[in-house]
Structures are given as C-alpha cells and as structure tokens.
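In response to the reviewer comment on reproducibility (Comment 2.3), we provide here a single inverse folding case reported in full, input and output, so that an independent group could reproduce the run without further information from us. The structure tokens appear first.
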C-alpha cells in the first residue's frame, strides 16, 4: 500500500485551518500531517485531502451528505470515524475551519491520551 504524500501547499492550508488552542498540536505522520488535542487526533492530511474525526453520528451524517465528502485515508483502508472534506473547499478556509472546529470540539471532550511508552496508573 503506497501512502499519498501531501504537497507543501496542502500542508500550509492544513496548518492554517487548525485552531491555535490549548492542547492542540500538529505533528508529521507518514509524509502527511495530523492535528491532535490532548494526544487524540481530530484532523489529518492525507495527500491533499483534509479529513476530520466526527464522534457524533448525526454530525458525521450531516457532513457525509455534502457533495464531495468521502472516506479519509488510503482507499484500501480508510480511517474509521473520519471523513475527507471536499477538495473544492481548498479555496474556502472558513468552511474548512468550521468542520475542523467541530471535530476539535468533539475530540477535545475525550480523556487525554497517554504518551507512547508510558503506562497507565495501576488501579487499586
């Protein structure tokens, strides 16, 4: 499986629509980018497509009904819970930001993810 690589223009657009908010960071992922809040990914860039993770089924269905929205990630194995925003929105950062913000809002409510290599505290 060959992974799509993001162009410099797509990376710049992606970074421009990620809010500067507490706990939010953008990190490289396999030649692409991911946006995380408290360690949980809420948006990503795969090739030149921006994808968002929407936890609410109704919100995900609302986005899925828009022309140009599709699965996010490799065609052979799209990422569950994520949808790609329409390519036609590349010139509409406000529309991209709206959906990225909705994804951030939902994922920010999840418990923080423990950093890799750390162990969860023992109960007891």
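Designed residues, in position order:
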């Amino acid at each position: 499986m060959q992974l799509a690589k993001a162009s410099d223009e797509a990376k710049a657009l992606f970074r421009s629509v990620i809010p500067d908010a507490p706990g939010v960071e953008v990190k490289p992922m396999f030649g692409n980018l991911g946006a995380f809040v408290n360690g949980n990914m809420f948006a990503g860039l795969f090739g030149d497509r921006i994808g968002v993770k929407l936890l609410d089924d109704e919100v995900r269905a609302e986005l899925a009904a828009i022309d140009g929205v599709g699965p996010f990630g490799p065609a052979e194995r799209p990422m569950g819970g994520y949808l790609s925003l329409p390519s036609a929105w590349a010139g509409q950062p406000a529309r991209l930001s709206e959906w990225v913000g909705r994804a951030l809002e939902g994922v920010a409510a999840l418990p923080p993810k423990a950093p890799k290599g750390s162990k969860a505290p023992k109960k007891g």
